Amino acid sequence: MKTRRFLSFLLITATLFSALSCSNNEKQAPKTAKNVILLIGDGMGPAQVYSLILTSSEKTAFERFPYSGFSITKSASNEITDSAAGGSAIANGTKSNNGCVGMTADSIPMPSMLDIFAEQGKKTGVVVTCAVTHATPADFLAHNITRKNTEEIALEISKKEKLDVLFGGGKKYFTERKDGLDLIGKMWENGWNIYDSLPQIENNNARTMVLTCRKHPVKAPERGDFLPQATAKAIEMLDNENGFFLLVEGSQIDFACHDNDSATLVEEMRDFNKTLNVVLDFAEKDQNTLVIVTADHETGGLTFIDPDGKYTRTDFKWSTGSHSAIFVPVFSYGPGAERFSGIMDNTDIIKKIMDITK
Ligand code: MG
Ligand code: ZN
Question: Residue 148 domain-assigned?
Fold first, then answer.
């Protein structure tokens, strides 16, 4: 009797153990990711993320990420970076000088992760809420000694051989140029489809640029759902068996913070949050997409204070109209996401992404 009981104990233990190890195997995410979606909140430090949590009644998209860390943002030239050098470090993994786009501190042009993924045969796209020639998208699409050369940056973008989707603003840099060139006409000739709004897109397989305005799109909430909708459309157009890379920027979080405009910051963060939910919903279904959310730097030196010493109110308190040196958050989801925990340098982000997509 005792032996039989012992045997059935062994049998139950063995069954439990194999059931557990089986479910562990099933749950184990693949070690490599096929798709990468990188989202940059321009100027989005920890307090900008907290401004959303503070004013939201629902759980935010940021709270859906299983891993988070911090990125140190200083540039080669300055303790406090601008968007050009901050984005460049993320895009190509080298520290550059403030103002410099897609180049090392010695002005050597560097391929961005978008270029590397395109070379590998992945589809690539960029979705922003600023002119597509602005510093952050330019870091991924162009190489220039200064971000101010917007017409040169537009020319380089128009000649890119490998780029599938580009949604944002900045039409004037393509059509109202000092050199008189009509870059949009040239791009049509080279097989691009170009529109001023997302619903005009007819062919999901053509290289497609949507420029909604002359310079920067209007701020949130007047902009409507352009960013979440453009992101959803880009994912739909880019998703393919070889994988894709998509850069999404909440460009105007920075603009609101330069203005120390708390209400607009919250609107821009809501817009970015909606976009994150679109991306996470896709990644959860796909199970083969690495999602990284970070920032190029913090803007405004924002914090939340107790104005009367009684802890009855939480007021927004801005300490500058410029950028600050504080580190920025990194949130990650998907295969290899755990590698983005802890404190890292902004130049480490591309290295980790490349390791996971090998
Ligand atoms: Mg930017
Ligand atoms: Zn800025």
Answer: yes
> Residues with Cβ within 5 Å of ion ligand 2?
254, 299
Closest CA to 136 of 285, 255, 9: 255
* In the block, residue with structure tokens 């989707």: 165
Does residue 173 form part of some domain?
Answer: yes
In b/e form, how buried is each residue of 54-81, taking b as 16+ CB within 10 angstroms?
Answer: ebbeeebbbebbebbbbbbbbbbeeebb
pLDDT per position in the chain (358 positions), as tens? 455 565 555 555 555 444 444 444 445 555 799 999 999 999 999 999 999 999 999 999 999 999 999 999 999 999 999 999 999 999 999 999 999 999 999 999 999 999 999 999 999 999 999 999 999 999 999 999 999 999 999 999 999 999 999 999 999 999 999 999 999 999 999 999 999 999 999 999 999 999 999 999 999 999 999 999 999 999 999 999 999 999 999 999 999 999 999 999 999 999 999 999 999 999 999 999 999 999 999 999 999 999 999 999 999 999 999 999 999 999 999 999 999 999 999 999 999 999 999 8
What CATH code is carried by the domain that includes residue 189? 3.40.720.10
Answer whether residue 206 is part of any domain.
Answer: yes
297 alpha carbon – ligand 2 mean position (Å): 8
Number of compact structural domains in the chain: 1
Q: How far apart are CA 191 and CA 87, in angstroms?
A: 29
Q: How far is the CA of 299 from the centre of ligand 2 (A)?
A: 6
Range of the domain at 247: 31-356
Q: Report CA(333)–ligand 1 centroid distance (Å).
A: 23
Closest ligand to C-alpha of residue 299 is 2
Q: Residue 204 C-alpha to ligand 1 middle, in angstroms?
A: 27
Q: Is residue 343 part of a domain?
A: yes
Could you tell me the distance, in angstroms and rounded to a whole number, from the CA of residue 121 to the centre of ligand 1? 27
CA of 33 to the centre of ligand 1 (A): 26
As a whole number of Å, the CA-based R_g of the chain is 22
Ligand with the closest atom to the CA of 321:
2
| Rounded CA separation 91/147 (Å) | 15
